[in-house]
Design goal:
This protein is an alpha+beta fold. It contains nine helices and four strands; from the N terminus they run ααααββαααββαα. A four-stranded antiparallel β-sheet has the order 1-2-3-4, with helices on one face. α4 packs antiparallel against α5. It is elongated and about 135 Å long. Pfam families: OEP.
């Protein structure tokens, strides 16, 4: 009886057993403590950033864009695959956790024995028990479970990173479509203007006050504009195809933007703090840290393999000659056995498993630090662009205004007969280029804000599982 009590108490004793996993200490981030500022970088506020706590609906303020992003989060196939991988990691963690508990099986048997007098005797047996339940004296099973937990958490952080990237990708594609629509409209307006100019030159030649060279030059300019319109129409169709792929289903026309305008479909400012600690909260950085923690648990499991394993086998049940009174017969049977196993020789497999676990830890540490460095660069690059884009837009806006003025003056000079046709044509080309460049600058600013939002870890939403 004392032996049975001792075996029964072993699972409780195992709860306080050894754990050979090394103690985890968060590595010091291999980046400056503050985000860059000064020079091309904008001056940053001294408060901690709230960008990663800002919901994407608060950042993307256009209702159509909000609906597009929501649809992408529900329909995008890459995100669905990521969610499935999260569920798989969760299930595997639960499988490893189940090893901490004994597996209990139940059996029932019936046997009939015929005696010499022809009488048949029935024997009934009902039993339940566990076989080879390992007592986790050295923490091997707990570290395996811990490793699976960290792997699951890393996968879930990967889901968040994929989600944030999808929000940014959908928004960027939507804004690119808007900018392409603006570029197409300018090209179409240029075609209409150059077609009108060609008609004027044809009439001037017919009346003897124009030349064939002016007609040919005007025709060339018109053809160039028509080719640009064809290219932009192709680009607009391709931009829609790309947006449909990102979203996961075809979008209706009412959800598509007609113009980028000044890019006010998103917030024009984002709170950014001085500390680079915000990078440690990015999902991809957290995922890398969970992977690193998993390797610490793997080392603990590998170290525990050097020590003997203690297995417990227990069986209890009832036996009776009659089924109706099997639980009342008082014939209760029970057995408890324990076995200790120590590996003597394995050709160095156990030692090499430990060496491999330590090498995996070193690799995971390097990956974690590299992930932080990459995050720092992404934020620094976005801040560098943010610090100069407004100046670029001001210059492009001034260029467009002056190019428009120059075109009007040169056209008036041509109409008055004091300038040849090449003067207004060159001015019109300059104006066309300036208008297209202004659209590109505005798109760059909008895309930069989206990238800064993503790089700071913003855009997170809760996932609704089916």
């Amino acid at each position: 009886m004392k032996r049975q009590i001792a075996f029964a108490a072993l699972p409780a004793l195992a709860l306080g057993a050894c754990n050979f996993a090394p103690r985890y200490v968060q590595p010091t981030p291999p980046v400056p403590q503050s985000l860059p500022q000064g020079g091309v970088y904008p001056a940053l506020a001294g408060t901690e950033t709230a960008a990663d706590a800002l919901g994407w609906r608060e950042f993307f303020v256009d209702p159509r864009l909000q609906q597009v992003i929501a649809t992408a989060l529900a329909e995008n196939r890459n995100l669905r695959a990521t969610l499935a991988n999260v569920e798989r990691a969760r299930a595997l963690y639960r499988v490893d956790s189940a090893a901490l508990f004994p597996i209990v099986n139940a059996t029932g048997t019936l046997s009939a024995v015929q005696g010499t007098a022809g009488r048949v005797t029935d024997n009934f047996l009902v039993q339940a028990g566990t076989s080879a339940y390992e007592i986790d004296l050295w923490g091997r099973l707990r570290n395996q479970s811990r490793s699976s937990l960290e792997t699951y958490l890393a996968t879930d952080e990967g889901r968040k990173a994929t989600q944030i990237a999808l929000v940014a990708e959908a928004a960027s594609a939507w804004l690119s479509y808007a900018a392409t629509a603006d570029a197409l409209r300018i090209a179409e307006e240029t075609v209409a203007s150059r077609r009108s100019t060609l008609d004027v030159n044809v009439r001037r030649e017919a009346n003897g006050i124009g030349t064939r060279l002016e007609v040919a030059t005007a025709t060339t300019a018109l053809n160039s504009a028509e080719a640009a319109v064809a290219d932009f129409r192709t680009s607009l169709a391709q931009a829609r195809n790309a947006l449909d792929l990102i979203v996961g289903k075809p979008l209706t026309d009412d959800l598509l933007p007609t113009t980028l305008g000044a890019g006010d479909q998103i917030r024009d400012a984002l709170p950014v703090g001085l500390s680079s600690e915000v990078l440690l909260r990015r999902p991809d950085v957290l995922a890398a840290e969970h992977d690193l923690k998993a390797t610490y648990a793997d080392i603990g499991a590998a170290r525990a393999a050097f020590f003997p394993t203690l297995s417990l086998t227990g069986l209890f049940g009832f036996a009776s000659a009659g089924l109706t009174n099997i639980f009342n017969s008082g014939e209760f049977q029970k057995t408890v056995n324990g076995s200790l196993r120590q590996r003597i020789f394995d050709g160095g497999a156990t030692a090499n498993n430990l060496a491999a676990a330590k090498a995996s830890r070193d690799a995971a540490l390097a990956t974690y630090e590299r992930t932080i460095q990459t995050a720092f660069r992404e934020v620094a690059d976005a801040l560098a662009r943010r610090g100069t884009i407004d100046e670029s837009i001001r210059a492009q806006s001034s260029l467009e205004a002056n190019a428009a003025t120059a075109y009007r003056i040169s056209q008036s000079r041509y109409d008055a007969g004091v300038a040849n046709y090449l003067e207004p044509l060159d001015a019109q080309r300059t104006l066309y280029s300036a208008r297209q460049s202004l659209i590109s600058a505005r798109l760059t600013k909008a895309a930069n804000m989206v990238e800064l939002y993503r790089a700071l870890g913003g855009g997170l939403v809760e996932v609704t599982r089916q």
